[in-house]
Amino acid sequence: MRIISVSDLWKRFNSEWVLKGISFEVKREIFGFIGPNGAGKTTTIRIVLGILNANRGSVKIFGKKPSELSVEERRRIGYVQQRISFEPYISVFENIWLYGYLKGLSKDEAKERALKLINEFDLEPNKKAVELSIGQRRRLQIARELVYKPDLLFLDEPTIGLDVESKHKLLNILRQLEIPIFFTTHNLWEAEKLCDRVAIIHQGQILTIASPKSLIRETRSENLEEAYLKVIKNETLNISKYKNNL
Ligand SMILES: Nc1ncnc2c1ncn2[C@@H]1O[C@H](COP(=O)(O)OP(=O)(O)OP(=O)(O)O)[C@@H](O)[C@H]1O
């Protein structure tokens, strides 16, 4: 089943085209969206979620246009943004519990889920959010998003600031969720370990979509990072060749 379908999506900010006709589908899988800074990853997530409008192209999420999703359907989509935000002066437990409650869980359900996640994410329940380190804040932000068991999760560079052990724990938790995940990262080791398929986006265009294994094999690389660099370099060479012919 297609969870997300994006077809020929174009987006312009002022006079600059940042998405130039991208198309992809996300099934029941962990789908990695990888590319350099400014390639258009966050913009794509925002269009898929209906936060931004595209100039051209179509987006379907659970078979509907983003604007046609019901409140309940939208409530069941998780989005962990790059920017960390939560209630700073209440405790870790209250932050997670309250979010679950506001998303529609009963008080007891929200409490039970919050305690389980605090344990899984190795957080201190009574610390105020403002007292947490950057990595702990990131863990709180992700735990909070999981409290109401979303049906689909968007994670925009969720592991920035996490230490090695926390990263491993997070990847294990994500794998066990068994929900479709749209995941952006600059850490290709993570993408290789976690993603069923990855799309490489470069200057607003998708260069390739494949499983990490087949991309590594086809580019005769040792790992995804090497494969990624080869794909991007090849594209850069093609662009300069094109420019030289102008
Ligand atoms: N609201 C906006 N107004 C103008 N330009 C924007 C806006 N949002 C994004 N852009 C531009 O669109 C391009 C793509 O940005 P986007 O945030 O999607 O990139 P990204 O791939 O997520 O980058 P990063 O890896 O650095 O997070 C960038 O050149 C950025 O400056």
UniProtKB/TrEMBL annotation:
<dbReference type="InterPro" id="IPR003593">
    <property type="entry name" value="AAA+_ATPase"/>
</dbReference>
<feature type="domain" description="ABC transporter">
    <location>
        <begin position="4"/>
        <end position="228"/>
    </location>
</feature>
<protein>
    <recommendedName>
        <fullName>ABC transporter domain-containing protein</fullName>
    </recommendedName>
</protein>
<comment type="similarity">
    <text>Belongs to the ABC transporter superfamily.</text>
</comment>
<dbReference type="Pfam" id="PF00005">
    <property type="entry name" value="ABC_tran"/>
</dbReference>
<dbReference type="InterPro" id="IPR003439">
    <property type="entry name" value="ABC_transporter-like_ATP-bd"/>
</dbReference>
<dbReference type="GO" id="GO:0005524">
    <property type="term" value="F:ATP binding"/>
</dbReference>
<keyword id="KW-0547">Nucleotide-binding</keyword>
<keyword id="KW-0813">Transport</keyword>
<dbReference type="InterPro" id="IPR050763">
    <property type="entry name" value="ABC_transporter_ATP-binding"/>
</dbReference>
<keyword id="KW-0067">ATP-binding</keyword>
<dbReference type="InterPro" id="IPR027417">
    <property type="entry name" value="P-loop_NTPase"/>
</dbReference>
<dbReference type="GO" id="GO:0016887">
    <property type="term" value="F:ATP hydrolysis activity"/>
</dbReference>
